[in-house]
Structures
1.
Amino acid sequence: MFQRSVIAGLGLMGTSLALGMRHHEMSQRYFGVESDEAHGKKAVDMEAVDRILDSRHLPEIDFLALCTPVEGFADVLQQFGQDMPTHGLIIDIASVKVAAINEVLKHLPSYMHSRYVPCHPIAGAATYGPDAANPQLYFEKSVIITPHGDCSEEAIDRAKLVWKKLGAVTRILTPEKHDRVYAYVSHLPQLLAYAFLLAYHGEFKAEGLQTFLRIGGSSPQLWASTFMLNRQSLLLAIEEFQMEMRHFPEFSAYGQMQAALAAAITEEYKPYAGPGFRDFTSTLDRDIEQSLSQNPLSLHHTIATLHNILHVGDKERLLSLLKKAKTVHNQVFG
């Protein structure tokens, strides 16, 4: 299918993509781009990639997967996207599509715009890094393809074939609708999981809550970036959620949060949710729920604080709070 493939970003998602492609013999050679030396070495040891590239001296690449944070796209494209063949294919796997598309098209030669297909696999895990990777990560998962105005139908078909060979099912959304949908079914639940951990500082027992708060163990750096990139859509989702919370004053903090989240998300959006959403909205055992604090004021305050930080665009403060939430998660769940 491809001669020389480059996977830029060898965390969980990128390494799993490389392993899956190798398992299905989709390319003759596999190369990695990774700023974390330990991650790169691990990906080579796992035989996900043949070697890590440290310079541009490489014959023509005909497949490039952008699996770094969006902020890293420019460097990768300047190194490896400037003279790809016109039959090549470029994808990204970012969970925010409007910002990703703008960044790629800004740094990609115009002749390659038609060969770039934005993708968002609805897969992952609370753990991250190449140690957590596996070639079956995308099997029976959804992948949202969000074509931009210059996408060629042939390139879209080739991208669909990549995911089909990995066992995934592709769906099409516009970039704008994608970002609205995932603000509600992915980014808002993730922010609420962090908010819950911050509000209660681990003042609950781990037993029975591992599934509910699994996503609270995710990478703060990744999610701070995601929240900021989809800031406008996420702010609207938070505001709607806050309005819904007022309709359930007699509920516990947990009950308020679950009921408000269910009310804020339309039936149209729910089919796009992934396993993280299903875990976070899972029903708790009544005894476990009753053991949680019944006072929702702390949770209200924490959500309002996160909303205000997003509103002013203070990424450093946002990242600091998400790191605190992850620390609480690690202390409670190990």
2.
Amino acid sequence: MESHSQVVVGDVSDLADGQMMSCVAGATNVLICRVKGSLYAIEDRCSHADVVLSTGLLQGHIVTCPRHGARFDVRDGSHAGPPAHTGVKSFDISNIGTGIAVTLRKTERPDDFPEGGHLRTR
């Protein structure tokens, strides 16, 4: 049975529509995006070039990697264009009090997540 861990990453109430921010959930870099009022979370690493996606461009539900232009759908992490041939991980988001929590599946990342989470700006 797959185990899950929720990591509180902070308040994103000031994240405007069409914006994204990077955060750390345990040992995982996560990209939070707000599109048409909904929040989405994907891994903040391009599967093609191992570059942070948060420095790329968000247009609609598609984030484009700044290095080679690989594109990913923020709704599910699927790749939406070459040169990437695989997607990135996507994560569930929950509202927790005044902030949000990202759900990590322990089969994807080892250990408990003792460091907690925090938002990070670039």
3.
Amino acid sequence: MPFNETRPIYQQIADRLADEVMRGVYHEGERIPSVREYAALLGVNPNTVVRAYDYLQIRDIIFNKRGLGYFVADGAVDAIARMSLATFRDEELPRIVERISALGISPQQLLDMIKNYSHS
């Protein structure tokens, strides 16, 4: 998996797993790969995957059944949607608004661009 340098690798791994849950690769109540399996798949240190799994577990997206592994939590899709919306609002939107302002794009121009984009 190619990683970027803007966010910690464990967060990028957590994002990937969350995306896989949203796409239906893993379903609520279903077992996900073990830490070692996922680390081998991504070519990263297992400790990095442990951090990613801990990050997702704190956010009620996955849970650990001792001796059985990690599973997707009930309500994980909704939790991921809330988390994604918060990330967009707090991290991505400010950069977008700053860029729009720097380019001198009016609100009406932006709405027109969005309408045209969604119709293509």
